[in-house]
Design goal:
Blueprint lengths: L3 E2 L14 H10 L4 E7 L19 H14 L5 E8 L6 H11 L3 E4 L21 H16 L18 H18 L3 E4 H5 L7 H9 L3 E5 L11 H14 L2 E2 L8
Parallel strand pairs: 1-2, 2-3, 3-4, 5-6, 6-7
Helix pairs in contact: 4-5, 5-7
Bound molecules: zinc ion (2 copies).
Length: 256
C-alpha cells in the first residue's frame, strides 16, 4: 500500500489548484500516514526575473506558515513534511540551498526541468530532442545532484525526452540507473505523467530499471487535492511495477 507521498504542489506555483488544507484532508481520508509538500522552489535569473511556474519569493514565508499550522493541527492524524522540488544548477546551488534552508525547508526532491541553468538555457528537458549529448548532459547533471546528498530522490527521472536511436538511449540509461542504484537512491515512477499519458514514465526506462534491480517510489506529483483520493490509479501503478518485477519502496526524506 502507498501511504507515503513526498511529491505535492500547492496553488502558489501558479499551475496547481486547491487549498493546502484540502490536500491534507484528502490525504488523511485516503489513509496516508506521511506526506510532504514539495512545491517548485523559487528561482530568479540574473536579469532579476522570477519564473512564473514556481512559488514566488514573496509567497515563501506564507507557504511555510500555513503548512506549519496544518502540520500542528493534523499531527495526530498524519505526518507532514515541508520542502521543495528544486533544480540542480551547479553555479547557483550553494545559494539555492542556503536560501531554502533559511526558510525552514526540511527536504528537497530533484526535478530537473531544465539543463544547465535558467539564466541562459531555457529549453526544458521535457521537450523532444534526438541529441545524445543533451541526454548525457541531463543524466550527468542528475547524478551530480544526487551525489551532493541533499536530494531525497529524483522526481520523474525519465523526463528527458530523447527521440533518437533507442540503442543509444538504452546504453546511457542503463549506465545511469546502475549509478543511481549504487548511490542508494530509488527512482520515482511519476503518477502525473502516467495519468496524463505524457512521454514519461517511459516503458524502456522502466524495463531497464527492472533489469538493473532498481527500486521505485511512487510520486503522486499532486497539482490538485483530488489526486490523493484517486487510489485506483496508484493501485494500477503498483500492479504495473509488480508486473515489471520492480521492487517498490516508500520514499524517505533526507533532511537538509
Ligand atoms: Zn508543478
Ligand atoms: Zn512536481
Amino acid at each position: 500500500m502507498v501511504d507515503v507521498n513526498l511529491h505535492t504542489h500547492t496553488y502558489r506555483c501558479g499551475h496547481a489548484s486547491g487549498e493546502d488544507r484540502e490536500y491534507v484532508e484528502n490525504a488523511v481520508k485516503a489513509g496516508f500516514r506521511e506526506i510532504g509538500f514539495s512545491d517548485h522552489a523559487p528561482f530568479r535569473t540574473k536579469d532579476g526575473k522570477e519564473a512564473g511556474y514556481r512559488v514566488q519569493y514573496l509567497a515563501v514565508p506564507e507557504y511555510f506558515e500555513n503548512l506549519r499550522a496544518l502540520r500542528d493541527e493534523f499531527k495526530d492524524r498524519i505526518t507532514i513534511h515541508i520542502g521543495f522540488e528544486m533544480e540542480y544548477y551547479e553555479e547557483d546551488f550553494a545559494d539555492m540551498l542556503s536560501y531554502v534552508r533559511s526558510q525552514g525547508a526540511e527536504y528537497l526532491i530533484l526535478g530537473q526541468h531544465f539543463l544547465g541553468n535558467e539564466h541562459i538555457y531555457r529549453e526544458g528537458t521535457a521537450g523532444p530532442s534526438d541529441s545524445v549529448e543533451r541526454l548525457e548532459k541531463y543524466l550527468d547533471l542528475v547524478l551530480r545532484a544526487l551525489k551532493t546528498g541533499f536530494f531525497s530522490y529524483v522526481a520523474h527521472p525519465d523526463i528527458i525526452r530523447f527521440t533518437g536511436d533507442e540503442k543509444a538511449y538504452e546504453t546511457r540509461i542503463r549506465a545511469f540507473i546502475r549509478e543511481v542504484v549504487k548511490l542508494g537512491y530509488p527512482l520515482e515512477f511519476n503518477r502525473l505523467g502516467y495519468f496524463e499519458k505524457r512521454h514519461y514514465p517511459r516503458d524502456l526506462f522502466w524495463k531497464i530499471a527492472a533489469e538493473e534491480g532498481a527500486t521505485a517510489v511512487i510520486g503522486l506529483d499532486c497539482h490538485t487535492p483530488e489526486v490523493y483520493l484517486d487510489t485506483a490509479t496508484v493501485e494500477e501503478i503498483e500492479a504495473h511495477l509488480t508486473a515489471l518485477g520492480i521492487r517498490r519502496v516508500l520514499p524517505k526524506i533526507r533532511r537538509i
